[in-house]
Specification:
The longest helix has 21 residues. The chain has ten helices and eleven strands. The protein has two domains: 85 residues, Rossmann fold, CATH 3.40.50.10860; 132 residues, Rossmann fold (3-Layer(aba) Sandwich). It is α/β, with parallel strands linked by helices. It is 40% helix and 17% strand.
């Protein structure tokens, strides 16, 4: 068998188009959704991510309030900026691009963002509400994974899910979400202390890999007909490419696609969905703050 390649790029485009229509309707009521994206320093990956967010905001007809600060910005200075954005009624969402320079405490900055404007879903209030099933802004990558599964009609009810990785951004939240009653999956989260990761994967109906290491999931770890969601984005050397590298995920895509029923590619898989769901959260924030 050969897997169906899940077109995250195409699905994300559809999500953005739907958001754009709703933004147009909201503007007729006098509300223009606005997202403040704060970038500190010149981290190449962060610069690229922020550029992608700006493009998506433009496509959706939202206001892009991008703020680029120098690497030397102090923690106190960044906290003051977040406070001013919290108080600005024309700003509906706040996103501080991570990672921050080492002299800035990321937890302090995240904690300072008003929960009603935390469209990344990272503040303790939103994480806590997600855990107990209350209304909140879901973290964008897990939210995107859920949306991909829904759009492809991939059943989670009663299914066995193996999540590889326990990060606060992907592993933990997607494990919590899929354990909710509306998704009703039995979730096992594997990490560096897990002794039988391969065995757990082999018994899983859905594998979600988010560890940031190429080749973590091999074909022998995947049962026939499984769904494989590859969240990893890794640069590996490739002399045939102009920039000298290519992007791969955490899974052996070419081998696994001959066994799985569904698989996401890297790039153009989960990545585009992260930004698309940020647009969804920003729209939701604007509505709630009317």
């Amino acid at each position: 068998m050969s897997a169906e390649i899940i077109d995250g790029f195409g699905i994300a485009k559809s999500v953005r188009e739907d958001v754009a229509k709703q933004v147009t309707e909201l503007k007729r009521k006098g509300v223009a959704p606005c997202l403040a994206v704060v970038l500190v320093g010149e981290n190449p990956a962060s610069v690229s991510y922020v550029r992608g967010k700006a493009k998506a905001l433009n496509e959706c007809g939202m206001i892009d309030k991008s703020i680029h600060l120098p690497e030397s910005t102090t923690e106190e200075g960044l906290l003051q900026l977040v406070d001013s954005l919290n108080k600005d009624e024309n700003v509906h969402g706040i996103l501080v691009q991570l990672p921050l320079p080492k002299h800035i405490n990321e937890n302090k900055i995240i904690d300072a963002i008003a929960p009603k404007k935390d469209v990344d879903g990272f503040t303790p209030v939103n994480v806590g509400n997600m855990l107990i099933g209350r209304d909140c802004y879901l973290p964008c990558t897990p939210h995107g994974i859920i949306e991909l599964l829904k759009r492809k009609n991939i059943q989670t009810n009663g299914k066995s899910v193996c999540v590889l990785g326990r990060s606060n951004i992907v592993g933990k939240p997607i494990s919590i979400l899929l354990s909710r009653k509306e998704y009703n999956a039995t979730v096992t989260m594997c990490h560096t202390g897990t002794q039988n990761t391969a065995e757990i994967c082999q018994n899983a109906d859905i594998i979600i890999a988010a560890v940031g290491r190429p080749g973590t999931v091999t074909a022998d770890m995947v049962k026939d007909g499984a769904t494989v969601i590859d969240v990893g984005v890794n640069r590996i050397p490739d002399t045939t490419k102009k920039n000298g590298f290519r992007l791969v995920g955490d899974c052996d895509f070419e081998a696994i696609k001959e066994k799985a029923a569904f698989i996401t590619p890297v790039p153009r898989g989960v990545g585009p969905m992260t930004i698309a769901m940020l647009m969804v959260n920003t729209l939701d924030a604007a509505r709630k703050q009317i």
